[in-house]
């Protein structure tokens, strides 16, 4: 939001913020800025749909409903930005957006092909402690069905420091992420 207001991201408007975590800071920031918000949680969705009788049906229904939320009131040129979204997106979400030409990008705290999925910062820290790596980084990438394996838009490396704690690394990674996501969003918009 700040990057749009400050002109660092051009030709963009945030039309909705959706989170699967009720207390996500992004929801409050959006509300404070007058941007519509939606809380879309998997467990809540499952309870609201007793006709879905197993986890697979609930998951597919949830992802389809998420796609419907995005597609129902979207501008002609749309981009979905996953920043802090900790839910693997299935074809029930990805396919309708692809058919509608809506690209999806994701911010991930690791370099391409390294530490895909959850807990990437901690896994990189542990690998450094074991002498397996000397750097880590962040990337903004297009979302595909394979987790954190889409084509990167932005890659930023970060040297690991010997006397650093995992919490200190996490802080440095978040600072790098905040800059990378701005650059990634602008590149994705330019590529549309």
- What Rg is obtained from the alpha carbons, in whole angstroms? 18 Å
Beta-strand proportion: 15-25%
Class by alpha and beta content: alpha/beta
What is the overall shape?
Answer: globular
Give the topology string: H per helix, E per strand: HEHEHHEHEHEEH
**Strand count:** 6
Order of strands in the sheet with the most strands?
3-4-5-6
What is the end-to-end distance?
20 Å
Approximate helicity band: 40-55%
Q: Helical element count?
A: 7
Q: Report the biggest beta sheet as strand number plus sense, adding barrel if it closes.
A: 4 strands, mixed
Low-confidence stretches: none
Q: Give the rounded overall mean pLDDT.
A: 95
List the keywords.
192 residues, alpha/beta, two-stranded parallel sheet, 7 helices, globular
Task: Walk me through the structure.
There is one protein chain. By secondary structure, the chain is of the alpha/beta class. Helix content is 43%, strand content 16%. It has a four-stranded mixed β-sheet with strand order 3-4-5-6. Helix 4 runs parallel beside helix 5. It is globular and about 50 Å long. The model has no long low-confidence stretch (mean pLDDT 95).
């Amino acid at each position: 939001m700040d990057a749009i207001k400050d002109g660092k991201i051009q030709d963009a408007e945030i039309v909705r913020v959706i989170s699967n975590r009720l207390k996500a800071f992004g929801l409050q920031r959006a509300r404070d800025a007058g941007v519509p918000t939606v809380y879309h949680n998997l467990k809540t969705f499952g309870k609201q749909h007793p006709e879905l009788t197993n986890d697979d049906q609930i998951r597919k229904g949830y992802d389809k409903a998420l796609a419907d939320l995005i597609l129902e009131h979207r501008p002609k040129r749309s981009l979905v930005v996953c920043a802090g979204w900790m839910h693997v997106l299935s074809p029930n979400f990805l396919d309708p957006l692809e058919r509608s030409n809506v690209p999806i990008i994701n911010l991930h705290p690791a370099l391409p092909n390294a530490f895909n999925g959850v807990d990437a910062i901690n896994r990189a820290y542990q690998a450094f402690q074991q002498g397996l790596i000397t750097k880590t980084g962040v990337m903004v990438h297009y979302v595909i069905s394979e987790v954190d394996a889409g084509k990167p838009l932005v890659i930023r490396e970060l040297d690991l420091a010997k006397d650093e704690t995992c919490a200190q690394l996490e802080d440095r990674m978040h600072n790098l992420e905040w800059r990378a996501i701005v650059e990634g969003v602008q590149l994705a918009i330019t590529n549309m």
